[in-house]
Amino acid sequence: MSHILVTFENINLRFNMKLKYLIIPFISLTLTHACKQKQEHVIAIDVLLTLPQDVYTQAVELNKSVLQNNPDNFTLDAQHIPHITIMQAYVNESDLPEIEKVLVGLYKTIENETFLVDTLQYNKEKEESFASMGIEKSEALMRLHDQVIKVLEPFSVSNGTQESYVQNEDGTPIDDFTIAYVPKFISHHSYENYNPHISLGVADTSVLDSLETHKFHPTNFKAPTLALYHLGNYGTARKLLWESN
């Protein structure tokens, strides 16, 4: 009887030892995965077309006029470049190397295309309106828009926060509208809803009427580069992450 008892005790001991060696790696793996998830940083990005000097200058000058009327706007400058958004999204920062790889070569598809700034967009029915330089929705531009979404949508995440943006220099928080806008870009602002433009800010409609008559000029242009930027407040292009050669 004692021999049987000892045998059972030995079996139980060996089982517990095996269980111990199974549980410890499992716990370690679980903790490692949890730490990785906790440390993952989400950033807001903008895939965009940069502008040639004449269009860049016109956008900056129009923005200055908007600011004179309403100082509570973003300023277009070297730290907030005027641009044409192709797609915006939240992505994991750790995926940036892969994102850059899938963007390589896309600029070649529009390198020789001529685009058109064709209108000063604003709501003439209101006393105050957001204004932008509208870009013609050419086949080449829409094709690029579709291609960028196709390669980047697999990297898109929805859990962006204040910390996902380049922070404001004055310490004020990122605007709630901006935070809510980015994750809805594909579903609400793409394809048939895509409105290619160069943002200028909000001003009195009377001021915008004058700008349309005296300062805005429709312009044909070629885009110098396709670029990837880290977004700031109001969807401004703040930090260059990648640019086509």
Description:
The chain has 7 helices and 9 strands; from the N terminus they run αβαβαββαβααβαβββ. The chain is of the alpha+beta class. The chain folds into 2 domains: 1-39; 41-243, Alpha-Beta Complex (Cyclic Phosphodiesterase, Chain: A), CATH 3.90.1140. The protein has a 5-stranded antiparallel β-sheet, covered by helices on one side. A 4-stranded antiparallel β-sheet has the order 6-4-3-7. The longest helix is centred in the N-terminal third of the chain and has 38 residues, at 2-39. The chain is globular and about 50 Å long. Mean pLDDT is 90; it is low at 1-9 and 24-37.
Q: How is the main sheet built? A: 5 strands, antiparallel
In N-to-C order, the SSE pattern is HEHEHEEHEHHEHEEE
Query: Which CATH class of the largest domain?
Result: Alpha Beta
CATH homologous superfamily of the largest domain, by name? Cyclic phosphodiesterase
Strand fraction equals: 15-25%
What fold name goes in the CATH topology slot of the largest domain? Cyclic Phosphodiesterase, Chain: A
Principal-axis shape = globular
CATH architecture title of the largest domain: Alpha-Beta Complex
Mean pLDDT: 90
Structural classification: alpha+beta
How many domain units?
Answer: 2
